[in-house]
Amino acid sequence: MSDSSADSIQPLLEGIAPGNAAAREALLKHSQDRLRRMVKQSLRKFPGVIRWEDFDDVLQNVLVRLDKALQELAPPTPADFLALASAHIRWELIDLSRRHSGPEGVNSHYLTPATDEDGGRRSVEPPAPAEDPLGLAVWHEFHERIQAMPDGVRRLFDALFYRGLPQAQAAELLGMRVRTLRRRWHEARQTLMKEFGDGLDIR
Fold first, then answer.
1. Residue 2: which of 43, 44, 37, 33 has the closest Cα?
2. What are phi and psi of 152, to 5 degrees?
3. Angle CA(197)–CA(202)–CA(203) in degrees, nearest 5?
4. What residues in the chain have per-residue pLDDT under 50?
5. 87-123, pLDDT tens digit by residue?
6. pTM for this prediction
7. What backbone phi and psi angles, to 5 degrees, belong to 153?
8. 128 phi and psi angles, rounded to 5 deg
9. Which residue ranges make up each domain of the chain?
10. Within a 13 Å sphere around the CA of 98, how many CA atoms are in the beta-carbon half?
């Protein structure tokens, strides 16, 4: 069984210890379907990455990151493990976004939609930021801004924006009332909307 509920992950976590490669492999194999869904959900938020990177390659990089992380720490609960996985997914995608959105990156040379007949790889002049408020560079800056936020706000975005959890489930995960979560989520979204404009769709 490769999918994983919280109950099925817990026994595997109890076997995690530094140097126990077999336990790490068993945990990652067991959790792979869940991790695939998490990568797919987050990858949609990175248009500057999704058009260039193969999904399976991204997933493999995340698994390598997680394996290294688990060599140094053992998440005590399934929620801790999934939070760790989500963080490494986000870091991998941010690293890829930096690579593709830099001055020498492909996104600085190919800005046409990826659905074009030529695959979106026709070289064009980058539009001015005012003409392209939701362009790839803006999304890259947006993710960087979230990464720099205080831990509590970043965890909100991790649960609601990147993982796409229902608010009730996110509130339980974060240990707060749904009403409190909604208020903090509204405040966090408003902060970013002021920076990036009302056209930025943050759900």
1. 33
2. -65, -45
3. 150
4. 1-4, 103-134
5. 899 889 889 888 876 544 444 444 444 444 444 433 3
6. 0.68
7. -70, -40
8. -65, 150
9. 6-130, 149-203
10. 9
